[in-house]
Amino acid sequence: MRIATTSRFATRIVIAAIASLLFWSQTAAAEAWPRSFTNLDGSQTEIPSRPKRILSTSVTLTGTLLAIKAPVVASGSAANGQFFAQWDHVAKEHEIENAWPAGKVDLEAVYATEPDLIIVTASGAGSTKDQLDAFRQVAPTILVDDGALSWQELATELGKATGLEEQAAASIAEFDAYVASARARIKIPTGKANIISFNGAGQSNPIAKPDGPHAALLTALGFEIEAPDQAWHTQAASRDDFVWADYERLVDLKAETTFLLRVDDNRATAFRNDPVLANLPSVKNGQVFGLGIHSFRIDYYSGKEIVDGIAAKFGN
């Protein structure tokens, strides 16, 4: 019996030793520098050491970088020359320099910033991908597409590039716990919900798909999202997040609740009072809500604002 017990004890020691070796091996691999980052276009960028001075060329990237505690020293801003309001206070706390407004790259500012990593997005008004060669004369430069990724997916990618994998995972886990806590406090209205970026007559009115980031967040809170008809899509290229529908298609929606992007409840009045939309179930039910003025793009900070708004509306 003693021999068997000793054998089992020795086996546990061996297993523990192997597990420890695997852990330290994985940790060492994660800490290894230089490391190679695979860009969106398939090219490779070698990053020689853990970045200490990051230039984010697009305002849409910066919120996620701040969420994973990346050392951002400068960032592009929106077309109005301002950072996004949901994380502007964080940028001020870290004294992040406003490099340029979207669409107006300043190469002198790039040199003056002395970055050791430059991050570029391939899509959106803040994209500076045409300047990749110029940026790469200054510092290692990586190319991602934040328009095609959830903020969590983007955080994971940026974590790999910056050596902040653990911080990225921690931010995602903390956000998920925040959502789960809110879900436990709210009562979901009966029926389905849809999510619309309402632009009115004569324009496309994007409707969120169930697999898009906005729908994913509301699904995590307990809502069932109505799927728009893909045949309504007016753009040449298909999208994973929205169907860009003509105004006239909105009357075919069936969900009992409607959430509107980019507006608060007060500014949702235009949708509620639109005579063409008067027979929509959500309008008849009086269940048309603004998702928040910062809700068009979800990052760590705007996502929490959306969650807080939902909890305030539907809290038990």
Q: Which segments are poorly predicted (pLDDT under 50) over 5 or more consecutive residues?
A: 1-14, 23-29
Strand content: 15-25%
Helix content: 25-40%
Main structural class: alpha/beta
State the distance separating the first and last CA atoms.
Answer: 59 Å
Shape: globular
CATH topological fold name of the largest domain? Rossmann fold
SS elements, strand count: 12
Query: Largest beta sheet, briefly?
Result: 5 strands, parallel
* Helix-strand topology string: HEEEHEHEHEHEHHEEHEEHHEH
* Overall average pLDDT: 91
Number of domains: 2
Number of continuous helical runs:
11
Q: CATH homologous superfamily of the largest domain?
A: Nitrogenase molybdenum iron protein domain
Question: In the CATH hierarchy, what is the architecture of the largest domain at level 2?
Answer: 3-Layer(aba) Sandwich
Q: What integer value in Å does the Rg equal?
A: 23 Å
